[in-house]
């Protein structure tokens, strides 16, 4: 996705490089820090990174807002663009896409966080909590289930079943805004990896046509399928369209 976005930006004649370093995915403004006031009049020092726009980012692009709160310090927020969301499905509590999204937005504690102004704490290391929410929703939301992992044992694939619905409503806890507008999505495509190992196997894709018919693409073979076959529990990537 990032590579395609880069190439589209280049075709449009936009330069995303700085001092010879390729950075066309996002444009960074080092001095773009603002103190913003959010819900309940709570302020945060916010830094924003923006897409150099392309036809791809117009469809799949959104914004995430990451907020770090440390004791004795003003909240620090970073707004970043995204083309897809990476969802961790390894935890035992994750059985559905809704579970994975809830985990994605759940606050996490940061160990050894060093604040810029630590107040009375002389070491500068304070207790901090980080949370990530969606600030701007994309027209088509791509959800990547992290089935492949790489560690000391090499690459492995997780065959854990994860259920997903035809209609997805994003929970308010996932969004910066409390508005209900734009939270509803419909499944339009899936990608599945078949095989026991990451280095081997085969990919198929299911896609929904405008008339509602689902088709399965398996190399040169294209067959009509019912929704029961679409909603299997081994999907790798999901595409949801905003309604």
TrEMBL record:
Annotated Gene Ontology cellular component terms: cytosol; nucleus
The EC code for this enzyme is 3.4.19.12
Biological process annotations from GO = protein deubiquitination; proteolysis
SUPFAM superfamilies named among the record's database cross-references: Cysteine proteinases (SSF54001)
Q: Which CDD domains does the UniProt entry name for this protein? A: Peptidase_C19
Q: Which GO terms describe its molecular function?
A: cysteine-type deubiquitinase activity
What residue stretches are annotated with the USP domain? 1-243
The reaction(s) annotated as catalysed by this protein in its Swiss-Prot or TrEMBL entry are: Thiol-dependent hydrolysis of ester, thioester, amide, peptide and isopeptide bonds formed by the C-terminal Gly of ubiquitin (a 76-residue protein attached to proteins as an intracellular targeting signal)
* UniProtKB keywords: Hydrolase, Protease, Thiol protease, Ubl conjugation pathway
The protein's matches in PROSITE patterns, at most eight in alphabetical order, are given as: USP_2, USP_3
Task: Using the UniProt annotation, give all residue ranges assigned to the region (Disordered).
Answer: 1-22
Positions with biased composition (Polar residues): 12-22
Q: Which Pfam families match?
A: UCH (PF00443)
- Cite the InterPro entries for this sequence: Papain-like_cys_pep_sf, Peptidase_C19, Peptidase_C19_UCH, USP, USP_CS
Q: Which family does it belong to?
A: Belongs to the peptidase C19 family.
According to UniProt, the name of this protein is ubiquitinyl hydrolase 1
Q: Specify the species.
A: Gossypium laxum
Q: What is the lineage of its organism?
A: Eukaryota, Viridiplantae, Streptophyta, Embryophyta, Tracheophyta
